[in-house]
Amino acid sequence: MDRQTILDTKELEINMGPQHPSTHGVLRVRLKLDGERVVDAESIIGYLHRGVEKIAENRNYIKCVPYFDRTDYIAAVSNVYGYVLGVEKMLGIEVPERARRIRIMMTEFNRIASHLLWLATHAIDIGAMTVFLYCFREREEVLKLFEAIFGARLTTHAFRLGGLWLDMPPGFDAACRKFIDEFPARVDEYEQLLTRNRIWLERTQGVGVISAEEAIDWGLSGPPLRGSGVDHDIRKLRPYGGYEQFQFDVPMGKNGDTYDRYLIRLEEMRQSRRIIAQILDDLPDGPVRGRAPKIPKPPVGEYYSAIESPRGELGYYIVSDGSPQPFRLRIRPPTFISLQALRRLVRGHLVADVVAIIGTLDIVLGEIDR
User: Fold this and answer.
1) In the chain, helix, strand, coil percent, each to 5?
2) With contact defined as beta carbons under 8 Å apart, do 25 and 48 qualify?
3) pTM for the structure as a whole
4) Is the distance from CB of 251 to CB of 268 less than 8 angstroms?
5) Closest CA to 74 of 39, 37, 118, 44
6) Do the beta carbons of residue 83 and residue 68 sit within 8 Å?
7) Which domains are seen in the chain, by residue range?
8) Most buried in the list 111, 217, 253, 283, measured by CB within 10 Å?
């Protein structure tokens, strides 16, 4: 064998995951490499599939609610909110104003907790250990609020048809106020550590760039879409649950890279805090649960309900045949759609950049596999 044959290399295929700390779940990515450069990538999913949609088709509309906590378990409050809103629309259920506002408040707390976990894991993937510890410090306080009002920290089973199971416990509003008063300084602290950090800039700027037109073509939503400069937030475009009553801004990027998506999520936490403050300033008294049937039987028809989850457009498509359980139920999980763009985003980058790009999509395999 001559020297030229020994030194000549072909494209190398390696597996990243499914047991890999930076894939944020049991995701397997088959990478095709030319040296350190990514030529192609194939996402292989299904390791966490539990058949949630088919389970829901074999339970009545109330009994299947807790299963949606377990799809995107990082945003369980948001997931149940989207489903409950859809069924309430099918049945024409009126939700009391106090319950509507508490729902939005807790959903925005969930957005903050989700983004904190994203920032913590994204930062440590890229090598920033301190931010990981700081974010978990604040997230712990949000989970304490969940435990106080819902009785659980992660899979909260937060909402019921018609509103809430119980009202806020004594002292809960004061605990919420304490958190939102302290939180702006905490976000500023994260920015001091990262936003102008030379290593962070080199690892995120110009990495995973996607134009507005391509982002729309790929079906992206949430921060990955807004990072490319597309003004699309369902809370503004198709307000639900009472969001039209509150003032908040929708942050957008310009470059469509990993750095812009990082800045957007930081600002979204500030805007969520802004919504919560408005609710606490003007929270009406009254009941927290409206009239809802014990065994719902929605009219025959097809229904779609979508909300703006921390990761993008979360939709529930429900087909009713008039029976007490869905004839068909399908979930539109935002990161299932986002993950298909991973191949487009990583091509031409280095292997180390794959970690940053997976992180910037903020995937959760529970909702991808369902």
Assistant:
1) 50, 15, 35
2) yes
3) 0.91
4) yes
5) 118
6) yes
7) 56-337+353-365 (1.10.645.10)
8) 111
